[in-house]
Amino acid sequence: MAETPAVPHEPYAASRTKALESLLLEKGLLTTEFIDSIVRRYEQDIGPLKGAKVVARAWVDPAFKARLLADGATAILELGLDRGAPLVVLENTPGAHNVVVCTLCSCYPWSVLGLPPTWYKSPPYRSRVVIEPRSVLAEFGLTLPETTEIRVWDSSSDLRYMVLPERPVGTEGMTEEELATLVTRDAMIGVAVVRAPLDGGTVGASA
Ligand code: FE
């Protein structure tokens, strides 16, 4: 009689990664702490922080912003970042809000954002954000004016997207470093906007 699996079927890559990890641990080649530290680094340091610096620079330096929008992968080299796959930077404006997805798998701009969050790889996000972006954004707590057009961009292994969020009103006196602390990973994927620190934020200039 066939056994009923106790847990849902894992993707092949995930089972393979687990098998490799347990072998490396068993042979004493790696420690759990080391693996955790690498994952943390990609999630917290290498990841969103890099993108946040790129966004803050674009907010304070119009010439850099122009270069970034023209060729993202080349412009980020100026900040000492690695060149990843071709990177298209999508600028949010009061009239247009951009959201990034990979409908096929989980292509993600790792050179600026590090590791993707779990939800980015989930089938519901990947399928629904294309069909009903407004509802999906609302579930993330982001309600945009009906007049704002929502543009959904499908990443691929050849082309990655990153959103350049709008600089929030009320941040005029902040330095580039201070601005970078406001920029979140979710805002660079497009499921959030950047908020000013004191007033709880304003959605761009359209509010
Ligand atoms: Fe993909």
Explain this structure.
The chain is α/β, with parallel strands linked by helices and about 210 residues long. The protein has two domains: about 15-40, no CATH class; about 45-200, Nitrile Hydratase, Chain A, CATH 3.90.330.10. The chain has ten helices and four strands; from the N terminus they run αααααββαααββαα. The strands form two sheets. The protein has a two-stranded parallel ribbon with strand order 1-4. A two-stranded parallel sheet has the order 2-3. The longest helix is centred in the N-terminal third of the chain and has 15 residues, at about 10-25. The chain is globular. Mean pLDDT is about 90; it is low at about 200-205. The chain binds fe (iii) ion. Fe (iii) ion binds near residues 102, 105, 106, 107 and 155.
Using brief descriptors, characterize the structure shown.
Nitrile Hydratase, Chain A; two-stranded parallel sheet; about 210 residues; disordered C terminus; single chain; binds fe (iii) ion; alpha/beta
Bound molecules: fe (iii) ion
Please count the beta strands (DSSP E, at least 2 residues each): 4
* Total tally of structural domains: 2
**Helix segment tally:** 10
User: Structural class, judged by helices and strands?
Assistant: alpha/beta
The strand line-up of the biggest sheet is: 1-4
User: For the report, how would you describe the main beta sheet?
Assistant: 2 strands, parallel
- Radius of gyration over alpha carbons? 19 Å
The CATH architecture of the largest domain would be: Alpha-Beta Complex
Percentage of residues in helical conformation: 40-55%
Q: Could you tell me the CATH topology label of the largest domain.
A: Nitrile Hydratase, Chain A
Model regions low in confidence, pLDDT < 50 over at least 5 residues: 200-207
Shape: globular
CATH-defined superfamily of the largest domain? Nitrile hydratase alpha /Thiocyanate hydrolase gamma
User: Roughly how many Å apart are the termini?
Assistant: 62 Å
CATH class of the largest domain: Alpha Beta
Mean pLDDT: 88
Relative strand content: 5-15%
